[in-house]
Design goal:
The protein has about 110 residues and is mostly helical. The protein is built from six helices and no strands.
């Protein structure tokens, strides 16, 4: 993945449409929430059987929603000067301390 290329694509997309004025952290977080809800909606009330019968179609729809979610995560990071890679690794360190493998392995609680 070329993260710089992705950030540049998003930056150009926003600039060409003069959308910077609308991309406050509040608005971006709400848009991110909407996109995440659209992802959830794909699976709402769906049985495992239904999913398996329509897996290819579902994957294509999910792909679009995941891309929308990623767009808003990257955009939020751009607006708030967050280094996404560093943020991820810092959070993973916290997660490893909070959920030590020897205590939680195989458990969902």
């Amino acid at each position: 993945m070329n993260y710089d290329k992705i950030k540049n694509e998003i930056k150009n997309f926003v600039e060409e449409r003069d959308w910077e004025q609308f991309h406050s952290p509040k608005n971006l977080s709400m848009a991110l929430s909407v996109e995440a809800s659209e992802l959830v909606e794909i699976f709402q009330w769906q049985t495992q059987d239904e999913y398996q019968k329509n897996e290819e179609k579902v994957v294509n729809v999910v792909k679009d929603e995941v891309a929308d979610i990623f767009y808003y995560v990257v955009r939020m990071c751009q607006k708030m000067n967050i280094d996404l890679e560093n943020a991820l690794f810092e959070k993973m360190k916290k997660n490893k301390q909070k959920y030590p493998a020897d205590k939680v392995k195989g458990k969902s609680t």
